[in-house]
Amino acid sequence: MKTTKTIEQQRGTTLVELSWAMVLGVLVAGTLFASQRTSIESFNGSILEHKATGTLRGGLKEVRKEIRSARPDSITVGSPSTFLGSGSSPFLEFQTPVEFDYATGSVTWGGDEQVDATVGYYVEGDEIARYILISGVRSDATRTVLVDDLVDDGAQVPVAVTWIENKNLLALTLQVAAPGGSSANARNISTMIRVEPIFDF
């Protein structure tokens, strides 16, 4: 027996069905694109953070090495309220060994091979800079130790320093900005530095 299809059965895809298929396709493609974009941004953010952490570690290593050899009774810690947003008020000053006289066993203290000089660190915006103080005058030997790493929103102090004199320990905490300088996702990096000058007799 021969069957014949009605017009209803022979009909193809309607415009409404095609439109719904296109809308669903666009939604799926948009979702895939958004998730891929998020993954790429996350990956790029991780790379930036890794580079920033490497730079920060290098700068902290330099600071740590110098402070370890400081003369304990020369260490002066500044008040946070005096150095917020100011390049003239140090948060830390100290002296390091310059010369050692083997004949007498005496040590001459100073900084950067300058007798009686003082080494200092201060906050300048989102950076930490180092200087030498000679006879009360800041020398031209100022250099930046940490660049573009600290939170600089003008409201909070990005550095906290505590000198625990009876234990010869210096506690240093830096508030580090997220990649791009954002203070929203800032993190604190703390280090304890034991001061033990090798020429302290």
Written description of the protein model:
The chain is α+β, with helices and mostly antiparallel strands and 201 residues long. The chain is 31% helix and 35% strand. The chain is built from three helices and twelve strands; from the N terminus they run ααβαβββββββββββ. Strands 1, 2, 6, 7, 8 and 9 form a six-stranded antiparallel β-sheet that branches. Strands 3-4-5 form a three-stranded antiparallel β-sheet, with no helix packed on it. A hairpin with a 4-residue loop joins β10 and β11. The protein is rod-shaped. The N and C termini lie far apart (117 Å). The model has no long low-confidence stretch (mean pLDDT 77).
Task: Please supply descriptive tags for the structure shown above.
201 residues; alpha+beta; six-stranded antiparallel β-sheet; 12 strands; 35% strand; rod-shaped
Largest sheet: 6 strands, antiparallel
Mean pLDDT figure: 77
Instruction: Name the beta content range.
Output: 35-45%
Inertia-based shape: rod-shaped
Helix content: 25-40%
Class by SSE composition: alpha+beta
Q: Determine Rg (CA atoms, Å).
A: 31 Å
Give the uncertain stretches in residue-range form. Answer: none
Distance between the termini: 117 Å
